[in-house]
Amino acid sequence: MKRLLFMGLTAVLACAAHGFAQDSSGARPVAGEGVLAIVGGEIHTGTGAVIRRGTVLIKNGKVAAVGADLKVPEGARVIDASRRWVMPGFVAPRGDNFGLRRGRPRGKERFRDNLDPDNRMNELCLSAGVTTYFGQSNSRSNYGTTNAILRPAKGHADLMVLKEPAALTIQWGRLQTADRTKLEATLEKGKRWIAAGKKGRAPGSSAFIEALERKIPTRITAGRKNDIAQALRFAKKFDLKLVLVNAFEAWLLPEKIAASGALCVITPRRRVWPSPGQENTSGSSITTCAVLEKAGAKYCVMPPGGFGSRGYGIGLGGISGRDLLTYAWEGAFAIRGGASTESALRAISLTAAEALGVEDRVGSLERGKDADIVIYQGDPFDHRFRAEITIIGGRVVYDRSKSKFFKHLPDPRDEAKKR
Question: Is 88 strand, coil or helix?
Fold first, then answer.
C-alpha cells in the first residue's frame, strides 16, 4: 500500500473544488501556487482541538488555514494523511546539539556559525518527530548564556536557528553563597541600567538583560524541594520568566509553582530515591506531572540522560541508537502517572514551546505560525508508531519512505489490516 505520497494535479481536482481555499474565519483566499495541503488526517492542533479528516494548508512556510471543510486549491501539492495523526512538530526542552559541528560551539562562538545541516543526526532527530529543541554549549560554568533554539532542518541551514541567545541558564545546586551574591549583584545592576534608560554600557551579557526584560526565560536547574523554593523566590525578586529544569521534587509544592507561573521540565520515569525516613516528603514520583496538572501548573517532559549522551536532554547515541527515539514516549509515562493525554501532548509541543519562549512561532497548528508539522502513523504515545513525514518551515525535511534508516519498517496499521 502506498502511503503519504504527493498526489498530482488530477488527484487534487478529484478532492477539491476550484482554485482557492479559505478558513472559517473569513480569511483571504489562499492561492494554489506554492501551497502544500495535508488532507484526510486526524489533526491534533496542540491547543486541545481535534479535527477528524481535516486539512492543513501551508503557504510561504506558515500555516495558512486549518479546518474540516477546507477546499484544496488547484495546483497545490497534496500529502494524503488518511489514517494518520497530524500534529505540531515536537518541541524538546533540551537537545544534544544535532546538526552542529562536532564539539561546537566553543567559548563565545555562535551557534549560527557552526551549523552542519547535512549531518545525519538531523534525520534521526526528524524521524522522532522533533522539529525544535533547546541547545547549549558544553561549558561547565554555573551560568550559561551561549545557547539557542534550533531546528534540525536537514539540508536547510536557513531554517536551523530560531533564536539566539535563547535563555539565561543557572545551575542552582552548584552555586555557593558567594556565587549567588555575585549573581544577584549583576542582576541588580542590570535592573538599574534598564530603569535609567539603558545609558552607557550594559552590565553583564545581553542574555542577562533580556532575562530581566522577560524576553527570554531563565532556566534554573533545581531538583530538590528547598532548591525549587529558593529558585521561586529568586525569580519573583527579579521578575524572571522561570523554567525549573529537572524539578523532580516539584510534586511537593505544586500550588506554589502554579501561583508563580513557573514551568517545570520533568522526567516522569526518573528515579531519585527518597531520603531515609522521609519517603513521603522527598525523592521523585511518577505522579509529578499529574500533580502539577491538577494544581494548574504547566509542565513539559524530557527523557533521562539522552540515550547515552552527556547530561540531560534528547540524544540519539549514534546510528546504533536509531531505535531509541523515545521522546514522545516520555509523555506516555506522564499519562501512566495520571496526567491527561491532552496535557501530555502539550508537554511535547505547545508547553515545551512556552518553556523555550517561542510559543508565538511553533508548538501548535494555528494560522500564522511556522509550518512545523509531523505526520505520525498513529498515537505518538504508542510505542508501535513512528513519524512518516516531518515538515519544518513548510518544507518536507523527512520522509520515512525515503529514509535509509527506517523505510524497511512496516506500518503497524497496514499489518493489522492483513490479519
Answer: strand
Residue 143 in contact with residue 107, Cβ under 8 Å? no
Per-residue pLDDT of 290-347, as tens digits, reads: 999 999 999 999 887 643 344 445 555 544 444 446 688 899 999 999 999 999 999 9
E strands, 207-258, are: 218-221, 242-245
The amino acid at 374: V
Q: Which three cell numbers stand for residue 289?
A: 506531572
Angle, in degrees to the nearest 10, between helices 177-195 and 225-238: 20
Sequence length of the chain is 419
Cα 109 to Cα 103: distance, rounded to the nearest angstrom: 11
Per-residue CA distances from 58 to 83, 129, 257, 314 (Å): 20, 18, 37, 28
Say how far apart CA 118 and CA 294 lie, in whole Å: 43
Domains of the chain: 6-89+376-418 (2.30.40.10), 90-362 (3.20.20.140)
Dihedral of the CA atoms 73, 77, 83, 87 (nearest 10)?
-90
